[in-house]
């Protein structure tokens, strides 16, 4: 039997060239700037959106942003920027 090459070949290439996981594996990258901005890369849509909680679906894991006055200031098919008073960021598997 032949082995499937898809994801495992990509994983080997990422490891071989010492690239960050988000470069080819769709792993989310979350950047928090101060207590007012959260930038999420490699998201796959929103699961919840409100002024106190925003939850983004990110390839087998969820990124939960808690705070007050939260707003989505920018969103594309791969990136999400949340602004407001950020109280915490949580990863849920």
Comma- or semicolon-separated keywords:
Immunoglobulin-like; 6-stranded antiparallel β-sheet; mainly beta; 93 residues; 6 strands
Account of the protein in words:
It is a single chain. By secondary structure, the protein is mainly beta. It has one helix and six strands; from the N terminus they run αββββββ. Helix content is 12%, strand content 51%. The protein has a six-stranded antiparallel sheet with strand order 1-2-6-5-4-3, with no helix packed on it. The protein starts with 5 loop residues before the first helix and ends with a strand.
User: Helix fraction?
Assistant: 10-25%
Order of helices and strands: HEEEEEE
Class from secondary-structure proportions = mainly beta
CA-atom Rg in angstroms: 15 Å
- CATH topology, what is it called? Immunoglobulin-like
Number of domains: 1
Tally of individual helices: 1
- The CATH architecture would be Sandwich
Task: Kindly report how far apart the N and C termini lie.
Answer: 33 Å
Low-confidence blocks of residues:
1-6
Q: Secondary-structure blueprint of this entry?
A:
Blueprint: H1 6-16, E1 29-33, E2 37-41, E3 46-49, E4 53-57, E5 62-75, E6 79-92
Antiparallel strand pairs: 1-2, 2-6, 3-4, 4-5, 5-6
Brief characterization of the structure:
Helix content is 12%, strand content 51%.
């Amino acid at each position: 039997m032949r082995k499937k090459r898809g994801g495992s070949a990509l994983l080997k290439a990422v490891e071989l060239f010492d690239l960050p996981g988000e470069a080819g594996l769709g792993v989310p990258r979350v950047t928090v700037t101060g207590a007012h901005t959260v930038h999420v890369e490699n998201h796959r849509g929103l699961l919840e959106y409100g002024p106190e909680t925003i939850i983004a679906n990110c390839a087998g894991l969820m990124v939960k942003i808690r705070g007050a006055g939260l707003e989505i200031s920018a969103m594309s098919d791969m990136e999400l920027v949340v602004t407001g008073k950020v109280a915490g960021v949580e990863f849920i598997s």
